Amino acid sequence: MKKSQHQKISACLIVKNEEELLPNCLSSIKNTVDEIIIVDTGSTDSTVTIAKDFGAKVYHHPWNDSFSEARNHCLKYASGNWIFQIDADEELEQADIMKLQKAINNVKCNAIAVAIHSAIQDNYHTFYNIRIFRRGKGFYQGIIHEQLIIDGDRLSADIRLYHHGYNLDPHKMKEKWQKTTRLLQKQLEQNKYDSFAWFNLIRNYRTQELFNDGIIAGEKALTLFTPDPGTIHPEMGITMHHYAMIVYETANCYLHLASASRAKELCYKALSKLEAAGNTPENIDILFTLACAYLKEGSYQKAVQYFHRFLSLREWHLNNVGTNTFMTDTLGYDYAAHNGIGYCLGNLGQWGIAIDHLEKAIALNPRYRNAYYNLALCFENTGDINNAVNTLLRTVSEDIADDAVWLHLGELYIQQNTYEKALPYFEKYLKNHPADKNVLLKIVWCYEKLGHLEAALIGYRSVEALKEPA
Q1: Does the keyword Methyltransferase belong to this entry (predicted)?
Q2: CATH code of domain 341-466
Q3: Which CATH class is domain 9-163?
């Protein structure tokens, strides 16, 4: 580990059964920090051995159903000038080590917000969070989704942490969500006026695609909290920002259930209340949700308007991360906004501008499959089949192609009369959808065009076998 003559950094982690991900985490920080402090809360695997192999100082502490309690306990063992809080399922971008060293030499701040890139299936979500702070200038509160309370100024730095905790196998993810739900419910039993816990409970349901549960929890929270001056329960602790976060999550649950009208109603009400309370500029999470609601309704001009408004205000938020302590969920959604604009303009027949935005979306996030698909549709609608094909082939090279891509590629190759190229993509699709007679017929047709009549005959027999009995 690095021996600094100036500002000493203590990496602080709480862990339990993290043998799978911990080595990569510790490898990413071992040459950056001066000490690694690990509090183990009951591992039964090789986590502790791995930690010690990296030279970490390991302490044992019982798990008391509180992340804050464990994190604050970990802080007690740190001796550095700065705390670097990182989790076992995260890795530090090596190219940003010098940025970290530069940031901690800023004498005017006590905390540094970094960019968390969270991998979710074939995509990633980016948000900013304080992970570096002066020892003695911060502590945690809340039993889950704990909040760091900082004394003093903070700044933002373009330091990247990659989070892999949402890309676990389905069984581990189910266990994780169930644990999270249980702890959030426990936190609300202790204080039903904990608005941040309500927000996280709704988000927890939405992430699990339990949208009805999210709506029920969201509507209950919105009934409970009245963010009007002079009407707040003394135990409530509600802020206008927490109210906006609850609206954001609840509205998105409605969107997933195709209820754009209720989502819009919640968003407009929130914008009105935020403006009346003097909260400026507009909340970009709410603006992004409004844009998505109009897109789902097919009101493409309105959607484009709100996506542009979102992008404009996003720049303000990026420039004020250091002074704006509010959590902003959509700060890393610039690529999604450009994809939304491209999709809407494509539906309005403005293909050229649509293509520009979709290509920008891909440049910002090369693993965002929707943008490739929408870009291919734009090229196809302008008669540029070659570029449509090449666009979809880029998803193959990025290893993010799915069934929709296989099917579309096959259809595009048929338009080019290159049946031999269409066949493998149709077959990939059919492997996952063996009862799709339409695709099977397309395969048969390709065999006919290529003169493989015996294979075509076998295909026709397969189609007949799929027909339901009269």
Answers
A1: no
A2: 1.25.40.10
A3: alpha beta
Top-tier CATH class for 170-332: mainly alpha
Higher pLDDT, 465 or 93: 93
The mean pLDDT of 188-205, rounded to a whole number, is: 90
SS3 state of residue 443: helix
- Per-residue pLDDT, averaged over 19-35, amounts to 96
Burial tier of 245 (Cβ tally within 10 Å: 0-12, 13-18, 19+): buried
Q: Is 335 helix (H, G, I), strand (E, B) or coil?
A: helix
Write down the pTM of the prediction. Answer: 0.81
Element (H, E) at 128: strand 123-134
Closest CA to 322 of 196, 161, 150, 197: 150
Q: How far apart are CA 423 and CA 14, in angstroms?
A: 51
Write the CB contacts of 4 (distance below 8 Å, at least 6 apart in sequence): 34
Report DSSP state, residue 106: -
Task: Indicate the SS3 state at residue 211.
Answer: helix
d(CA 193, CA 225): 8
Block residue for tokens 């029920």: 216
- Residue 325 neighbours by CB under 8 Å, 6+ apart: 150, 154
| Integer Cα distance of 197 and 167 in angstroms | 23
The count of other CB atoms within 10 Å of the CB of residue 228 is 11
